[in-house]
Amino acid sequence: MNELIPVVDLQNGNSILRCIHYPPITNEPKSAIRADQHEDINLITLLVGSSADGLQILMKNGDWISVTSLPEYIVVNVGDMLQRLTNNKLKSTTHRVVNPLKKSWHTSRFSIPFFLHPRSEMSLVCLTNCINTNHLKQYADVTAGEYFDERLKEIGLKKLNSLISC
User: Fold this and answer.
1) Beta-strand (E) ranges in the chain?
2) CATH classification of the domain holding 33
């Protein structure tokens, strides 16, 4: 029997729509990278258009390719939660943002990604049809909230709880 992918309840989840502004470049940058390579924590990221080029994704062969987010398209990135859920069958999209060509330094870049997060109590237990003798289970069982909290601590966006002794 085929296992169905669980229904993802997004109501009261931690999804966020974020407006990211990359200001014009006024001085010679130290690096060609505006946002270093990373993967998103969430299930999927939806990117509907951006005001300028700069987004790149890492291919399996190690090459970076530019992705233009045109107004009539939606760029969909797999996030870490979906990677866990599928036991690495779907890989989280490694991406970065690079500086524009020098002739475009005077312009801003705007990007408005929607980070789709499930409710905190949703299970991220690997789907059974993504586990077999050739592809063993890669992750411990956690909820979306537990995983989100763990990742925020790892990247320094949430402080570890510390005990204060009197």
Assistant:
1) 16-17, 20-22, 33-38, 44-50, 55-58, 64-66, 74-78, 95-98, 109-116
2) 2.60.120.330
Q: 46: closest CA among 94, 115, 95, 118?
A: 115
Tokens of 68: 């233009």
Closest alpha carbon to 137 in 87, 80, 103: 87
Per the CB < 8 A criterion, the answer to whether 46 and 113 are in contact is: yes
11, part of any domain: no
Is 162 a domain residue?
no
Q: What is the pLDDT of residues 12-42, one digit of tens each?
A: 678 999 999 999 999 999 999 999 999 999 9
Give this prediction's pTM: 0.84
Angle CA 49–52–57, to nearest 5:
75
Residue 160 in any domain: the answer is no
Instruction: List, in order, residues 6 or more apart from 105 with CB less than 8 Å away.
Output: 24, 25, 26, 99
Domain that holds residue 125: 17-154
